[in-house]
Design brief:
The complex is a heterodimer. Chain A is mostly helical. Chain A has one domain: Transmembrane di-heme cytochromes, Chain C (Fumarate Reductase Cytochrome B subunit), CATH 1.20.950. Chain A has a three-stranded antiparallel beta sheet. Chain A starts with 15 loop residues before the first strand and ends with a strand. By secondary structure, chain B is α+β, with helices and mostly antiparallel strands. Chain B has two domains: 217 residues, Alpha-Beta Plaits (2-Layer Sandwich); 50 residues. In chain B, 35% of the residues lie in helices and 20% in strands. In chain B, strand 4 and strand 5 form a beta hairpin. Chain B is elongated. Classes of the chains: A mainly alpha, B alpha+beta. The interface between A and B is large, with 47 and 48 residues.
Chain lengths: 236, 275
């Protein structure tokens, strides 16, 4: 059913590439990644007593500046996405917020996949599977929490009440805990997990093989086949 | 060494502000330009440049008007929220028992200024955009105290309202003074700071209830501050450990599944791709 619907058949169907992320999406992702990594690294200096030497003196001054510069980058990332790829921005937002029977199916099959790598009972998924939607929702919520609590700590001292300030420190930290756990999971899935190596190519080059797309995002691939747009052969 | 402390006896204070001036002199702190706002307090609040100050309070009891003075500054709590929230170790409990501040270790986060139940630490903001700031507060003249001298304010106090010494001895003195004051008709005379927040390093003999001096009656170590240290931080380590363990298990499980999968499909792999 697959090769025949390609706009131009490739010699080897494993060479058929499907465009998964546009340039705007990829740039926004990596801006977010770089900002998050800097923020996490410099933030840890205040979180972990063992890293105190990095929080004082010239190192402390540099990390304080880096944290603020990265914060601006962090806040800019979604804007890059929105301005560069508005269509994908809203498509992805809608996808992440729309939960259907296939997401429940994914959640039901997730345990088998987690413990045995069993994909048999996994219903075909859209551009984002339920796990990715959960990640996206957490990212959206913690983004808001990070920005609000961060701005309060940056500019709000003496303006807001002490309870709100101290509360912001805690909200900031709780957001770190949630996102760090997801960050580790995310890195693991794209770089370590034995069945998903290809997804990192999608974020570098924008494409995945049709085979990967069918296995992991069958419903989405079917949409793309109807539109026949995001598709090309390797080396063409 | 037993804990050193400061005793302020309000019944002896004459409101001359010598302590305030001595503090500025010893630490080389510039005076702030102020305007008359209808009070003898000057400046009207602690500042990055003003670590000690005398507060003035009007109080009426038994139909009699009293003018109360209080030598105010950091009270050096035993359960010190500022020490517990300080992420750089700039604020610490000194071996002599008081809360010291190493300004060169301060990175300007300002957590102390927001966590303190007495609102004592003040932030000097050098640059709001870069976040450059420095906390400041009374350190009981840590340089003098650790070298066997009394703090500058104590040294200078003309009526002897400020005293410096071993905390236990000062407490004894304070209670004796309160007893004497009560016998002289100051029935509201009391000691403040003996048990508050685990016991303060600055003890007070007051002739009126603490509220009359603007002192919190039952100062509390904020539960928000406590939860940051005791719940949120350990939770972070736990979350990272649990995530890593969970993924290690998944890696082993998935790898085994993939290996057996490859063995199963290897003979007719090309067929499979056409299926």
């Amino acid at each position: 059913m697959a090769t025949s619907t390609a706009s131009k058949p490739c010699k080897d169907r494993r060479q058929v590439l499907v465009m998964r992320f546009t340039a705007g999406e990829r740039v926004a992702h990596w801006v977010h990644f770089i900002a998050f990594t800097i923020l996490l690294g410099t933030g840890m200096f205040l979180y972990m007593p063992a890293l105190r030497p990095f929080a004082v003196g010239e190192a402390g001054e540099a990390s304080r500046l880096a944290h603020r510069a990265a914060a601006v980058l962090f806040m800019a990332a979604p804007l890059v996405y929105l301005i560069w790829s508005p269509r994908d921005f809203f498509y992805s937002l809608r996808e992440a917020l729309t939960w259907g029977p296939d997401d429940l199916g994914w959640l039901r099959a997730a345990w088998g996949y987690y413990t045995r790598g069993d994909t048999a009972r996994m219903p075909p998924q859209g551009k984002y599977n339920a796990g990715q939607k959960f990640n996206a929702l957490t990212q959206i919520i913690t983004f808001i929490l990070f920005v609000v609590s961060g701005l309060i700590m940056w500019f709000g001292r003496g303006v807001v009440s002490p309870a709100i300030f101290v509360g912001s420190v805690i909200v900031h930290d709780l957001s770190v805990i949630a996102t760090v756990a997801l960050f580790i999971l995310h890195i693991y899935l794209v770089a370590v997990h034995p069945l998903m190596r290809e997804s990192i190519t999608a974020m570098f080059e924008g494409t995945v093989t049709e085979e990967f797309a069918r296995e992991h995002h069958g419903k989405w691939l079917a949409e793309q086949e109807q539109e026949r747009v995001y598709r090309r052969c390797r080396d063409e | 060494m037993s804990r050193l402390a400061m005793l302020f006896d309000a019944s002896r204070c004459i409101g001359c502000k010598s302590c305030q001036v001595a503090c500025k002199q010893w630490w080389g702190l510039p005076a702030s330009e102020t305007t008359q706002v209808g009070t003898y307090e000057n400046p009207t609040d602690l500042e990055p440049n003003t670590w000690a100050r005398v507060t003035f309070h009007e109080y009426e009891a038994n139909g009699q008007f009293q003018w109360l003075f209080l030598a105010w500054g950091c009270v050096h709590c035993t359960q010190a929220a500022c020490v517990d929230v300080c992420p750089t170790g700039a604020l610490k409990h000194n071996a002599l028992g008081f809360v010291s501040l190493e300004r060169e270790l301060c990175n300007g986060c300002g957590y102390c200024s927001q966590a303190c139940p007495f609102k004592v630490p003040r932030m000097e903001t050098v640059n709001l955009l870069t976040g450059e700031a420095r906390a400041s507060k009374c350190t009981f003249c840590q340089d003098r105290a650790t070298n066997g001298l009394t703090p500058a304010c104590v040294k200078t106090c003309p009526p002897g309202a400020l005293e410096w010494g071993e905390r236990d001895a000062l407490l004894e003195k304070a209670h004796a003074r309160v007893e004497w004051l009560q016998s002289r008709g100051y029935d509201q005379a009391q000691v403040y700071g003996e048990t508050e927040l685990g016991g303060l390093g600055r003890l007070f003999v007051l002739t009126a209830p603490p509220e009359a001096y603007g002192l919190p009656v039952n100062p509390q170590y904020s539960t928000l501050v406590a939860s940051w240290q005791q719940v949120v931080q350990p939770l972070g380590y736990l979350a990272v450990a649990a995530t890593t363990l969970g993924l290690a298990f998944n890696w082993l499980a998935t790898r085994r599944a993939r290996l057996s999968n490859i063995e199963a499909v290897e003979p007719d792999a090309t067929e499979e791709s056409e299926a």
